[in-house]
Structure formats: C-alpha cells, structure tokens
Amino acid sequence: MADELLIRTEELVKVFPMGRSEVRALNRVSLDFRAGEFAGLVGPSGSGKTTFLNVVGSLDAPTSGSAEVLGRRIEGLSHREAADLRNRSIGFIFQTFNLLPVYTAYENVEFPLLLLRVPAAQRRRMVMDALEWVGLADRSRSRPAQLSGGESQRVAIARAVVKRPPLLLADEPTANLDAENSHHILRTMAALNRELGTTFLFATHDEKVIAYLHRKITLVDGRVERDEPLTPAAGRETGP
Amino acid sequence: MITLRLALRNILGTGIRAWLNAFIISIALVASSWNQGVVAGMDEQAARAARDLEYGGGQYWQESYDPYDPLTLEEAHSPLPEELRRLVNEGKATAVLMMQGSIYPQGRMRSILLKGIDPRQHVLDFPTSALSAAGAGLPALIGGRFARAVDLARGDTVTLRWREPGGAFNAEDATIVHVMQTTLAAIDNNQAWLPLDRLQEMARLPGAATLVVLAPGTAPLSAPPGWVFRDPDFLLRDLRELVKTKSVGRVVLLVIFLSLGMLAIFDTQVLAIFRRRREIGTLVALGFTRGQVVRLFTLEGALHGVLAVLLGAAWGLPLLWLQARLGFAVPPGTEDMGISIGERIYPAYGAGYILGVAVLSLAVTTVVSLLPSRRIARLKPTDALRGRAS
Ligand SMILES: Nc1ncnc2c1ncn2[C@@H]1O[C@H](COP(=O)(O)OP(=O)(O)OP(=O)(O)O)[C@@H](O)[C@H]1O
Ligand SMILES: [Mg+2]
After folding, report:
1. ipTM, 2 decimals?
2. Which of A42, A67, A87, B352 is most exposed, with minimal Cβ within 10 Å?
C-alpha cells in the first residue's frame, strides 16, 4: 500500500487571464505522489502552490495536461463527480480554519459524515475518535468563536480526517498560528500520517512545516525547480 | 436533510436580523388578514341588517318599480294579485306602497318618500306596531337620522302633502308616534312610514302595493304577471360592490408589507452570499455540490417566510381572535360610507384567506431567496475560498 500511486500529474498547466495578458500559475508540472507520503510544496508567494492543491483537490480544472487523483482523471470530472471525490476521499485544511460558525466543534467534525450518510452510532464513535486524535474531546460542545486559533485548526484537522480519507491537502495550515500551536498540529498530522497511513500534501513557506516533511518540492513561477527527499528534522516520533 | 438542518442553524444563528425580516412579513400577514376580516364582518353585518330590515327573503316588485328613479313611483303600483295576497294573509310576506310627498318642518318644504306598511307585520324587524297607536290621527314612524335632519321628535306633528291621482294636492297633519334608531339608511333617510291602509286611502289606491317583501326563509313563488321577483342576491348586489371597493385596502396593505419584507430578505441574502463566500468555498471543499449550496441559501431565505408565519401566528392569531370577540366601535363618519353596520364591527376572518396569504408569503420568500442564490452557481470555489467574489 505504501507504494501505491495516489497522484500523478503530467504537464499540468494552469493559466489565469489577467486583464489583457495572462498568468501562468502552473507551467508543465509533472509530479507523482505515493500513498503514505508527507510531502510539501514550497516556494515564493505566487509560485503556484495553492493552484496545484486546488487542481489536485478537484476544486479547479487545469488548462491543459492531466491530473490523476486516486485513479480519477480530474479534467474529466463533472461537478457532481468532483464533489463526490472530495466528499469521500479528500480532506482539506485551510490557513483560515474555515469552521462552520453556527456548529459546535462536534458538529463541525460530524458534518462530512452526515454528507456521507454514515449511520448515527458509527458517526458518534468516529467523531469522538477524531476529536481524541487532535486532543479536543473535552471541547466538543464549544463553538468556533470560543476556540483559540490552535484549537480551531485542530478541529479543522479532525473534520478533515474523520472520514479517514486517503489524501489530505493542507494549504498553509500554520500561517495563522504561533510556534507552539504550529508544532502541536504538525505533530498531530505526522502521527495521523504514521498511524492511519493518510497521505499529506502541504503548501507552505513555513520553516516549521518544512522541518516535518519527508519530501520537499520547490516551485518557482509555476515550475518544479527542485524535488528532494528530506529526513525530517523535527521530532516525528512524538505522538499527537 | 443536511441542508435543511444547516439552514435552520444558520438562520437561527443570525439572530435579530432574521426575526426582524420575519416580523415585517408577519405584519403583512396579520394586517391583511385583519383587514379582510373587518371587511367581511362589515359585509356580513350589513347584509344581515339589510335582510332583517329591508329585503327579507326577497321582494316582488311591481314591474314599473325602479328604486333609482323616483319618477316611476307614480306608475309603480298595482292591486295585490291573489297569490301574493295569500302570502301576506299567511304572514309570510308584507306589502309596501310607496308614494312621493312632501313635509313642511319649520315651514320649509322637503320632498320625502311616503311608505305604507301593515302595522301588524312581522316580516321585517322594525317597530311598525307603533303605527297602530290609537287616537293619533295620521300616525307616522320615522328613523333617527331623518328625525335629526328635520328636527322632529316623538309627539310632534308635521304637515304632509301629496298629490292625488287626479293631480290635485291634498294635505294632512301627521303625528310622529315613534322615532326608530336604526343603522340602515334605506329605511330611515328622507322617508316616513304610515299605516298601509291609510296611505292607500290617501293615494286612492285601495289594495295596491309597490312591492311585497317575502319573510326570510320563505320559499318564493314564481312571480305573478305584472310583478318581478328579486332574490336576496340581486338586492344585495350594490352592497357587495361597495364592500368590494373597500377590500382594495387589504391588497395594498399586503403588497406594501410583503414587498418591504421581500426587500429585506433579498438584501439579507445578497449580503450573506457576499460575506459568506469562504463558507461557501468550504462547503464545496467538503463535498457539497453547487446545487446543494444554492439549495442551502434558498432554504435559509425561505425559512424567513416560515418564521414569519410562525411569528404571525404567535402574535397575530390571539390579537385577531380578541378583536373578533370584542369587536370595535365604528369610527365616527363611517355612517356616510353608505353601508349599514352596527355600532360595533365584529371582524369575520376567512381561514382560507389567512391560509392563502401564508402560502403566498412562503412562495414569495422562496422566490426572492432563490434569485440571489443563483449567483452562487457563478462563484468559483477557489475564489470563494480566498474570500473573493468572482
Ligand atoms: N483565480 C485567480 N485569478 C487570477 N490569477 C490567479 C488566481 N489564482 C491564482 N492566481 C495567480 O496565479 C499565481 C499563483 O497563485 P497561487 O495562489 O497558486 O500562489 P501560491 O504559491 O499559493 O502563493 P502564496 O504563497 O502567496 O499563497 C499568482 O500569480 C496568482 O496571482
Ligand atoms: Mg497559496
């Protein structure tokens, strides 16, 4: 399973119109990711990191080239199929946490399971498991407004992993967090990667994140400039 | 189901704004229902008064009679045909003879209608029995409004003048034996009621009548030759027309408040979609389809309508019920509206009408919510996640 191909992009191009001219956000990006990876896209602002995650996450269609994610061709998906793929197989973590403000922590984590029509008893167990992984089982009744940034991001992580998706996309997950909270959530994600085998793909320029990565891909102006394996410097052995 | 649940949470989470929008719509619902009830109540009361005091179960008109043309009165009388006379004798009808005349209160001449009616009749519910008062010479019964207009009171005498068939004028002093208080202008304005046999003598028309009023609830015979039967519907037509013109108010109320409510909802929706772009993007990332997002926002808007109906029921129904029980005093000046109502109006609400406006407001809120929600379909999820409008 560890060697199973999860993502393959070939000559991926994404062009955004920009007034009269255009911006080439991705320029012939060909990358493979295997199941169980803990990889990150790094690079200066505007280099195309977010755009790559969006295409892989089926939120955006490439201009040309192809992206195969979990055996599905992203270019050919209908709206409904793309929604279904995200619903079943992809978890998203955002810089701004993006919790649903009217729901409690518990309900936020439960939400993807409701979409998947998971039966109630099983749902309850899965939600509590996910909240325990991120260390927030005791805050399940809190609303997003009552949570700190670090806690919010941990709830968001629980929401992303509760359905045990094979792929998790995290765009600048630490950008709004202090060092302590950043390390906390990174340790959590590393543990989930190890224990559940979830593949993580980050977009970041945060050195703290890079310290946890197994693989670092450097993008510059929409091109892959370097793709290198890393020996994680940070304490990956500590649990969540 | 999940969209409904989320919509409910979202709308209850917006707090005061949602309730304010709903409240405005609930005003439209309640005010319009109230207005409808008042008009229907007035209609009902006026129709009842007209039936009890004037129309009975319908009227047989002498064929020349035209209530809108007093000049026809000279011709509009015939001796009662056998069939009608039998109804009268059985107490199932009463005959009325009409004739033009004039009175001279305080020396000024005033044209009035002289109406003859049997003092012992029980077909119409007004005090004709006063006309059987003994020793009054020529007794006359008049309405309160007319009494005030010509400054006559019970016990006063007044000179009546009328034209006999030959063309000669005749005159006689009449005594006001009773002033009846009635809300029905048709038996009050500009007229004096006399005993039927006396008026027949004065007009030299023994046994004649202008019309015959059928007792309410009596099955009508087919009209004898020379007479026309007018059923209650026909007789109430003018009243109904009048009431209809007064219902315009309720439509205006409904339209004004409903539009205000809709404007508020539209505004709320547009704002919500703008402010909640990131949330929309998140929902899409979590696996919502665009259709589901549109449905969510439409539902949120439509729920304002549901809140409005609940809110309207909560504060409006008790109020409407109380109003129907207590009624309210007829505001001064209403007398001149031309329909007769009691001193108090008791609204008669139509359950169908109330239900109808409730359903209407639900339908309209849904449409109004759907319009801005369609913009979501044009919102790219990636832009939405960045918090950008497309
Ligand atoms: N929706 C869009 N419309 C137009 N241009 C866009 C759009 N999205 C991204 N771009 C452009 O594409 C380029 C790559 O953007 P992207 O967001 O992928 O960069 P990034 O590497 O994630 O940057 P950052 O580190 O600042 O998040 C940038 O020049 C950006 O301006
Ligand atoms: Mg980015």
Report:
1. 0.91
2. B352
Residue A165: both structure tokens together: 């998706």
pLDDT band at B340 (very low <50, low <70, confident <90, very high): low
pLDDT per residue over A65-97, tens digit each?
Answer: 999 999 999 999 998 999 999 999 999 999 999
Measured by CA distance, the residue closest to atom 7 of ligand 1 is A16
Contact yes or no for B9 and A103 at CB 8 A:
yes
Most distant CA pair in chain A: distance in Å?
A: 56
Residues B28-55 have pLDDT tens digits of 888 888 888 888 888 888 888 888 888 8
* Domains, in order of start, for chain A: 5-96+146-237 (3.40.50.300)
- Helix H segments across B213-343? 232-235, 237-246, 248-275, 277-285, 290-311, 317-326
**Could you tell me the distance, in angstroms and rounded to a whole number, from the CA of residue A96 to the centre of ligand 2?**
12
Q: Minimal Cα–Cα distance from A231 to chain B, Å?
A: 31
Measuring CA to CA, which residue among A93, A69, A66 is closest to residue A81?
A69
Q: Give contacts of A84 with chain B, Cβ < 8 Å.
A: 287
All residues at 6 or more sequence positions from B52 whose CB lies less than 8 Å from its CB, including other chains: B124, B125, B216
- Residue pair B367/B295 in contact (Cβ under 8 Å)? The answer is no
Strands (E), chain B: 59-62, 78-79, 93-103, 110-117, 138-143, 157-163, 169-180, 191-195, 208-209, 211-214, 227-230, 328-329, 344-345
**Does the global pTM surpass 0.90?**
no
Calculate the CA B304 to chain-centre distance. Answer: 32
Q: Say how many Å lie between the CA of residue A217 and the centre of ligand 2.
A: 14
Q: Best mutation site among B9, B303, B385, B386 for testing chain A: the one with the most A CBs within 10 Å?
A: B385
CA distance B293 to chain A (A): 12
Write the pLDDT tens digit of every residue in B75-133: 899 999 999 999 999 999 999 999 999 998 877 889 999 999 999 999 998 888 989 87
**What residues form DSSP beta bridges with B245?**
none
Q: Is the CB of A47 under 6 A from ligand 1?
A: yes
